[in-house]
Design goal:
Blueprint (H helix, E strand, L loop, with lengths): L2 H15 L8 E3 L8 H7 L28 H9 L32 H4 L5 E3 L3 H4 L2 H9 L2 E5 L1 H5 L8 H7 L4 E8 L21 E6 H22 L12 H7 L4 H8 L3 E9 L7 H6 L30 E5 L4 E5 L6 E9 L2 E6 L4 H10 L13 H6 L5 E5 L4 E4 L4 E6 L3 E8 L4 H16 L8 H11 L5 H27 L4 E3 L9 E2 L6 E2 L2 E7 L2 E5 L1 H7 L7 E4 L3 H10 L13
Parallel strand pairs: 2-3, 15-20
Antiparallel strand pairs: 1-2, 3-12, 4-5, 4-6, 6-7, 7-14, 8-13, 9-12, 9-14, 10-11, 10-13, 16-17, 18-19, 18-20
Helix pairs in contact: 3-17, 15-17, 16-17
Amino acid sequence: MSSEQAILDSYEYISNELYTKNTNIKFEPTTILSITNDETSRHLHEDLDYTENNASASISELSPTFKIQMDSKQLMSAVKLLTIEDPPINCTVLQVNTPPPTPPDCPPQKLSRDQLLPPTPSVHLENKKNAFSPQLQEFCLKHPIAVVRGLAGALKLDLGLFSTKTLVEANPDHSVEVRTQVHQSPDENWDISQAKRVWACISHRSHTTIAKYAQYQASSFQDSLKDESDRGFTGSQIMSDSDSKDSVSNSNISLKRKKHKSSSKMLRFGTNVDLSDERKWKPQLSELQKLPAFARVISAANMLSHVGHVILGMNTVQLYMKVPGSRTPGHQENNNFCSININIGPGDCEWFAVPDAYWGGIHHLCEKNNISYLHGSWWPVLEDLYKENIPVYRFIQKPGDLVWVNAGCVHWVQSVGWCNNIAWNVGPLTARQYSLAIERYEWNKLQAFKSIVPMVHLSWNLARNIKVSDKKLFELIKMCLLQTLKNILHTQEYVKFKGVEIRFNGRGKNDASHYCGQCEVEVFNVLFIKEQEKRHVVHCLSCALKLSPSLQGIVCLEEYRLSELQHVYDSFTLYRTQGLHTTQ
């Protein structure tokens, strides 16, 4: 099935199914009450209670001159009044006069010990009807992180398609990135000398193939069985209960004993196995079409399906092959998009997660421990978090369980047993998701960190492809269009002032977005090309001027006709929906 057809099919599903009546779902620990159609539509666009609403203020005005109510002709006229002798400043997609994004302070409320160890929101599915209830999406969007238990059984997903045996049979020579790590207890992280607890997570990268990693995974399992037999051990190494408090208390064993154990063993974690090629992985990707639309890799209601090109691991599936102790260090997802993770089994995984509102506190602790929040590899010391009043969800993901990681949630994961996992990102069409994505997009610029989601390119595609009835989301996207169109017009005027010709180059339908070869910011529409080491490298205006203040020796290309961008900008208006009526 083509991506375009999948999007159309998803859109048809959303239209037909989103407002169906609630089905009986067993929620734990919270039962979701039945809501009307209007309430469903409203709640899907509300911000979560646990984070500050950074998009609540009206952003209708950009400056006394520029505002989103302007049409493109008015915008062009206003740009002509700007000084063209000076280059336009770096484009921001945020409202002008908005201060640069910074890590937020943690919420001031003092939490009790119990509140620092909150129970993990979870829901148990009993059948396919449960999985396709709109209330499931509602539940996931309401919490920082959620576990959907029994998903594979309810949807009759064939998890065997993602087993190591099947992977080897399908594509034995497929590449696997390997991370060599120290085996440690999930709630601890020791330095290389095993002398003290630290945040820095040791992880060395190499590469192998699926077949070779499968041999390692199998031999690791056999070695473990032999060790347990020699020592007379029976039973499970660790509990498999999903309750977060039990998970904490059951791991409360001697530090000295765990320290000694962790110092004796290294492990290899097979990560980032690319399953994007439909020719190689058709059975696997087809099986995932059984998922409800909000959790699918491709869906009309998924922002990342509108990027128009592949972003590996985000709008494509990646697989992880694990032995006990394999760690995914602490992080937020790229550009704060939501993520889906399904445990294939046969072993369990243990998760730790912190609500988005507290990410600034974790950032502070990373700095305190001399680790880069974005560039570094870190594993939080739990007691450090508790001392800073930062709550931590902790739970077990069993085979067939889906973990929904909401926008901005900080998380880190360790495998308990031998297992494989599959994962990808999704972008719900909500103001909260879009707001967090563009805020991280701007903060990444300040941190010299590449945003692998091209938010400007994505925003223009959203304006082309969808009708937005949510006023807050509309204003955020329209502001991005205004800011970028203003920057394009100003840049063109400046380049002409410099006496440089702008050549129309066009853009292929599925061409990847462009990034500056120097600073790695997204470059949209107006590209500055400089030959370097026999390669033609794209630059942003700022870096191009550093190479050549007169822009001599630099080719300026345009990807879209100005008339096309003007049409998209003018056509993107707030969609007025007819009132929805529910028959009781």
